Amino acid sequence: MERNELYHYGIKGMRWGVRRFQNKDGSYTAKGKKRYAGKGEQEHDDYKKAHSSKSVKTMSDAELRSRLNRLQMEQQYSKLSGSDVSRGKAFVSKSMKAATAANARVAEGARAKGMGKALHIAFNGGSVLGLCVVGFGLLGLAAMFLLFIAIYAPP
Fold first, then answer.
1. Following CA atoms 27, 31, 32, 33 in sequence, which dihedral angle do they give, to the nearest 10 degrees?
2. Of the four listed, 18, 68, 70, 79, which is most buried by Cβ atoms within 10 Å?
3. pLDDT attached to residue 1
């Protein structure tokens, strides 16, 4: 017995591509302004002072020093927080692109040359990510081994 039914869990009266709280030109309706009021982050006073458009020639030494200090701290913070995440993100992104390309090659191989060729392509393409998974597993196992040795080893 086959069921050919479509269930929709949307909002009654909602149309595809029509936003609830926006006009056609992109501006917010009255309800949209009320809903999204205060959602943006408020700038801190130090940030406003450091990023003001005041000319350097008109600043006092104390103002210039505080502005430079703030900008240096922001730069150091961005270096600390952004670089490690971006390296990991780039690695995962490259891995996912390789997997997607391998899947596309498998589908094309199955369509054009048959299942035997598709299986061969899938095995070769899957080995790259399979080895990555195994490598991370071994890395985690080694870390746990070293941790347990450090904790439970006799003195």
1. 80
2. 70
3. 61
| C-alpha separations of 8 from 1, 2, 5, 14 in Å | 22, 19, 10, 11
**What is the pLDDT at residue 48?**
74
Q: Which residue's structure tokens are 């598709």? A: 118
Greater pLDDT, 22 or 150: 150
**DSSP state, residue 10:** S
* Inter-residue contact 29 to 21 (CB < 8 Å): yes
Helices (H), 7-114: 30-36, 45-50, 61-113
Least confident of 19-23, 123-127, 138-142: 19-23
Q: Phi and psi dihedrals of 153, rounded to 5?
A: -70, 140
Counting residues of the chain whose pLDDT is more than 70, the rounded percentage is: 85
Query: Coil, helix or strand for 67?
Result: helix
Rg (CA), the chain: 28
Name the residue with tokens 């746990």: 144
